[in-house]
């Protein structure tokens, strides 16, 4: 097993009451107001900079045309007496509309502009220390593990090493920074897993890495290998995994923090070729992201433990590689899901629902109060909602709660229905269910209806389809770079927080 990627590669985050002598760049926020551009925040951090420096900075930024529009960047030489070489001003947009997500995005943009810088110091902590810290940390994320020079090719392309957050007094914001760092590291762990190529991350390796992280955190871990899976009747995981020379796994990680129980389930297809129903070559490499749901729920149970949430959280994670071969399952095969429901596999590329159904039935044996599954499940999610908006389905009340919380944290999941009339399209001529409908209508919803068959009565359930949002195939934006995004880890931890606070 190769070592888990070294997250000490992430930037150091610290608090400071003064601009130290080792800071290279000062990052300030700008807002647009009726009187033109202004520094933000405007109140309690005034003393750190002092009235004269604030006036000098504002004047210079105005002189070079800074407007303070959202994520606008302006870099100027520092005025005398500031102790840094340059000032990077980042726009936050209209003064009365600055929220945590805007701060996160602007901090992320600033962080990406700081490549090559050693230490940056920022006043964005005066707006929201936690959001600023998350934005800076995630904006500085990089994944050099597969570069021959692990520290990135050139010094001026290395992410910023250290970010200092100006605070009014030494004990200000300790808790907020601890939490922000924990959350950001969980997102980075998820990104690392997603960005690790399928050559290096196959089911046994993925399970071993997750096990290593969980045991290091003192959590309970159970791993089922292909023999144990077959013996226990996990027909979905075995069926999907049997085309690959790299056999499937099921890993369960439990954090016990209280009486209320939340089951997390995540799709862990380490590579999705489609199987015998093989995908076209164009963009197939993106199917390295087909384990993003698994990565997110693994990182989330670890994070719940790190934050000592007063609830019990179990991640149940099926892992398989979907390959075509002479041992692969065929279109027309019938398999038996864990628990006994039989399925006609019409399309081997609808594999996610097959491994998830087994895992959801297993997870439900623990009698959870809530069940949340996360999956890069359908191309139809991208058709319906685009690249950045997860779809959330499930039992209505909990579905709406998850969507609302997701929007609050800036991951923006949108509630989608499970229309009853589409269910009949999953009837099979030979088995209890077919794994696909005979048409393309509402593909994301049909997949949700398939999973619904495996959710027990009385369990509050949410199904998150993150096919697009989990993996950024375009250019960087805000605090998100290319590749794995870590979506929906921040939604999941916020939902767990909300459940813990009930
Ligand atoms: N992993 C894919 C879904 C996907 C597509 C994820 C694009 C990320 C980006 C999934 O296993 C799949 O192939 N789904 C099929 C389902 C169909 C056969 C009913 C799809 O969406 O085409
Ligand atoms: Mn598929
Ligand atoms: Zn898939």
TrEMBL record:
Mn(2+) 2 binds at residues 267, 272, 290, 351. It comes from the Bacteria. One of its GO terms (biological process) is proteolysis. It is an enzyme of class 3 (hydrolase). Residues 347-354 form the Cytosol aminopeptidase domain. GO terms for molecular function: manganese ion binding; metalloaminopeptidase activity. Its cofactor is Mn(2+). It catalyses: Release of an N-terminal amino acid, preferentially leucine, but not glutamic or aspartic acids; Release of an N-terminal amino acid, Xaa-|-Yaa-, in which Xaa is preferably Leu, but may be other amino acids including Pro although not Arg or Lys, and Yaa may be Pro. Amino acid amides and methyl esters are also readily hydrolyzed, but rates on arylamides are exceedingly low. The active site is at 279, 353. InterPro entries: Leucine_aapep/pepB, Macro_dom-like, Peptidase_M17_C, Peptidase_M17_leu_NH2_pept, Peptidase_M17_N. CDD domains: Peptidase_M17. Presumably involved in the processing and regular turnover of intracellular proteins. Catalyzes the removal of unsubstituted N-terminal amino acids from various peptides. HAMAP family: Cytosol_peptidase_M17 (MF_00181). Belongs to the peptidase M17 family. This is Probable cytosol aminopeptidase. It comes from Nocardia terpenica.
């Amino acid at each position: 097993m190769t070592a888990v990627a070294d997250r000490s590669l992430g930037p150091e985050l610290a608090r400071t009451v003064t601009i130290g002598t080792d800071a290279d760049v000062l990052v300030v926020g700008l807002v647009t107001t009726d009187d033109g551009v202004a520094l933000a925040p405007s109140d309690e951090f005034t003393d750190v900079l002092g009235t004269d420096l604030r006036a000098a900075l504002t004047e210079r930024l105005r002189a070079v045309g800074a407007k303070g529009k959202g994520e606008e960047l302006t870099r100027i030489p520092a005025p005398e007496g500031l102790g840094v070489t340059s000032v990077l001003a980042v726009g936050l947009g209209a003064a009365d509309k600055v929220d945590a997500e805007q701060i996160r995005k602007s901090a992320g943009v600033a962080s990406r502009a700081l490549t090559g810088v050693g230490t940056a110091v920022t006043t964005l902590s005066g707006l929201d220390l936690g959001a600023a810290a998350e934005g800076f940390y995630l904006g500085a994320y990089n994944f050099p593990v597969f570069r021959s020079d692990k520290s990135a090719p050139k010094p001026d392309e290395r992410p910023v090493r250290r970010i200092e957050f100006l605070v009014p007094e030494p004990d200000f914001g300790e808790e907020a920074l601890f939490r922000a760092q924990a959350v950001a590291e969980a997102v980075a762990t998820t990104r690392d897993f997603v960005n690790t190529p399928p050559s290096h991350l196959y089911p046994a390796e993925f399970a071993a890495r997750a096990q290593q992280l969980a045991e290091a955190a003192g959590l309970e871990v159970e791993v089922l290998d292909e023999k144990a899976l077959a013996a226990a009747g996990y027909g979905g995981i075995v069926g999907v995994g049997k085309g690959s020379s790299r056999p499937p796994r099921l890993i369960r990680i439990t954090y016990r923090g209280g009486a209320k129980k939340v089951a997390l389930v995540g799709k862990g297809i380490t590579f999705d070729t489609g199987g015998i129903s093989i995908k076209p070559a164009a963009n197939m490499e993106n199917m390295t992201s087909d384990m993003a749901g698994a990565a997110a729920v693994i990182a989330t149970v670890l994070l719940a433990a790190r934050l000592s949430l007063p609830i019990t959280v179990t991640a149940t994670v099926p892992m398989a590689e979907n390959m075509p071969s002479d041992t692969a399952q065929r279109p027309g095969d019938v398999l038996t899901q864990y628990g006994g429901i039989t399925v006609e596999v019409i399309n081997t590329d609808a594999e996610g629902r097959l491994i998830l159904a087994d895992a959801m039935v297993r997870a439900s044996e623990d009698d959870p109060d809530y069940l949340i599954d996360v999956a890069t499940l359908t191309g139809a999610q991208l058709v319906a909602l685009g690249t950045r908006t997860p779809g959330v389905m499930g039992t209505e009340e909990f579905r709406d709660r998850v969507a609302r919380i997701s929007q609050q944290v800036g991951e923006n999941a949108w509630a989608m229905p499970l229309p009853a009339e589409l269910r009949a399209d999953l009837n099979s001529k030979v088995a209890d269910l077919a794994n696909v409908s005979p048409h393309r209508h509402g593909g994301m919803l049909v997949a949700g209806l398939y999973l619904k068959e495996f959710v027990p009565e009385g369990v509050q359930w949410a199904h998150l389809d993150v096919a697009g949002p989990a993996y950024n195939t375009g250019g960087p934006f805000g605090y998100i770079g290319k590749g794995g995004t870590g979506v929906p880890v921040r939604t999941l931890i916020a939902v767990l927080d909300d459940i813990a606070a009930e």
